[in-house]
Specification:
By secondary structure, the chain is an alpha/beta fold. It folds into 2 domains: 62 residues, 2,3-Dihydroxybiphenyl 1,2-Dioxygenase, domain 1; 61 residues, 2,3-Dihydroxybiphenyl 1,2-Dioxygenase, domain 1 (Roll), CATH 3.10.180. It is built from 2 helices and 8 strands; from the N terminus they run E-H-E-E-E-E-H-E-E-E. Strands 1-4-3-2 form a 4-stranded mixed beta sheet, with helices on one face. The chain has a 4-stranded mixed beta sheet with strand order 5-8-7-6, covered by helices on one side. It holds the Pfam family Glyoxalase_6.
Length: 123
C-alpha cells in the first residue's frame, strides 16, 4: 500500500444518517447546527451550509445498537452548558452509558443516534 500510486483521492461528499423519518430528524439537526434543508426526489433530506453536508435517508429498520460512526461537534468550553441545554431542549437525550466524563457530553438525537458535544480538544 505505501508505494501505491493513487490517480485521485476521494473526498467526503456527505455523511448519511439512516433514519425512520428523514424530514423530522433533519429538522432537529438544522435547529442544532443551522443550515438549509433540501428534500430530494428520492426522499433524502439534505442539510447544507456547514463544513459538510448531512443527508438523512429513510430505512425500514430501527436502530438497534451503538453507532459505529458518530459526529463530534466542538463547542467553546465556556459555552458547553448552554450547548448541552440547547441540544436537550431540541429533543436530544443524554447517553451516560456511552461516556460519562468531563471532556465531552455524549447525547442521542431523537432517533437514538449518538453524537458528542466536545470542548476538551482543539476543535
Amino acid at each position: 500500500m505505501s508505494g501505491e500510486v493513487v490517480p485521485y483521492r476521494p473526498v467526503i461528499d456527505a455523511v448519511v444518517i439512516d433514519c425512520a423519518d428523514p424530514a423530522r430528524l433533519a429538522q432537529f439537526w438544522q435547529a442544532l447546527l443551522g443550515g438549509e434543508l433540501h428534500t430530494q426526489p428520492d426522499g433524502v433530506t439534505e442539510l447544507t451550509g456547514g463544513r459538510i453536508r448531512l443527508d438523512f435517508a429513510r430505512v425500514p429498520e430501527t436502530k438497534q445498537t451503538k453507532n459505529r460512526l458518530h459526529l463530534d461537534l466542538h463547542v467553546p468550553p465556556e459555552s458547553k452548558d448552554q450547548a448541552i441545554a440547547h441540544a436537550l431542549h431540541l429533543g436530544a437525550t443524554p447517553a451516560p452509558d456511552i461516556y460519562d466524563g468531563t471532556l465531552w457530553q455524549t447525547l442521542r438525537d431523537p432517533e437514538g443516534n449518538e453524537f458528542c458535544l466536545i470542548w476538551g480538544g482543539t476543535g
